[in-house]
Amino acid sequence: MRVNIVMPKMGESINEGTIIKWHKKKGDKVQKDEIIFEISTDKVDTEIPSSEEGTLVEIKAFEQETVEVGEVVAVIETESDAASNADQEEQKSEEKVPSTKQVGGDLIDIPMPKMGESVMEGTIIKWYKKVGDNVESDETLFEISTDKVDTEVPSPVKGVLAEIITNENETVEVGEIVARIKSSTGISYGKIEDKKAEPQKETAVAAKEETTKKSSSTAEIYLDKPVSDRFYSPVVLNIARKENIPFDELERIGGSGVKGRLTKKDLFNYLEARKSGSVTKPRPTEYQSKPSQKETVKFEASETQTTSFGNIDVVPMDNIRSKIMEHMVKSRDTSVHVTAMIEVDMTQIHNYIERNKDTFQNNEGIKLTYMPFISYAAINALKQFPFVNASIEGNNILVKKFINLGIAVAVEPNGLIVPNIKNADERNIRGLAKAINQIGQKARNKGLSPDDISGGTFTITNYGVFGSLFGTPIINQPEVAILGVGTVTKKPVVVEVNGVDSIAIKPMMYLSLAHDHRLVDGMLGGRFLKAVKDTLENFDINLV
Q: Which CATH class is domain 320-543?
């Protein structure tokens, strides 16, 4: 039986994922629950296990390719089906010509990868290997540029670079073969006879001539225009040609890409603004070309690593940071953020932790912190004020009768993931402590499942772990509130003893509630925070 492996849904608001690494190649045996590939979304980088035991017979989405949730990325043939077809495959192999697919065979075809749903072509800006060089699996082979991304493309197999079909600065369509590697591993159908190799060679030559023509026609869109020291992707040049944008005007349009590169989105935004009349002429930029002789625009290799301009380093965002940025901007533009703060006396809980932390560590094997107590107090408040545990869908309010508590986890070097404790209202302090520790470990070790980061109803973020007193967190969509936890610090506080004011040293903590004013107004937000404060300050230690 052939089993389709799809891009999993890694969160309620996640609609796509990027494959960042294949741990198996075509023809490899796969065990059930064995890791087969790794993906990146705006919420998580995680490894995806196989749902079946069998053989990986097809890879439909390659590394660095972004696909929608639910789209088939690979096919596994289960062992029962493979056994029944073994004899048939053996007979076919005698007549079959050697495979030149992405993985398997003596000669491995290296295609131009698809770098996004709307990307149809790419430009090779640098080859890191030359014909005859040895290539390791996952070693960088060449660098490409599209209107969405500049990236290095690794080799899928170990071997020797046998042929380069597409040269530097040539533009080819997605899926077109740019090189061939003679593999030192993989599946082989036997020797290639010279007679059968000839047509293949002729095809390769024809393909090279065709891509050269295609590249030349693209590069010569602005023939007889000044040379530019600014890089333009083929897609941007095509759009400019269709919209009749003169080259000097194109040079003055500000770009948001690396080193001021003009992206397709920048150009569309400019055209839209020009049509509406809000822009009469493009603003000057530091990337205008210098006066020069007239000739064809040349493509220049761009740096994907850190570059410097004087005292400024330009560091391209990695995929997960870029996705987090998009998610945060979406939340800002969706929710009407309001933040309320309250100060909490943590004396009772602080003293309990100090007295029992060693015993708890020995009995449970985990460290006792403030977080399970704060989570317990937040859950009680959510039960009292269910609209804080809701979401908005159109003109409807979806009030959840369950509490899936999200705990924000910082992941090195600069990622952030929000796994959920499902049905958190059914757990006591010890259960919450274990669950918080478990999801934290899973997040840092890339062990989260799609279920772990989907279906959240309310989130807690603990920026106090880094010493911050308070903050104004961004709501995790589609939720309507997020609780921020500050660090617990000892400070002088005015207390009343027998009707007399006095100064005492107490462990104090600030809590901040960022809430969506479309649903949670100031009164509801304030009452929620007061409920959390009352539970913490009057905590029943018998509940632990």
A: alpha beta
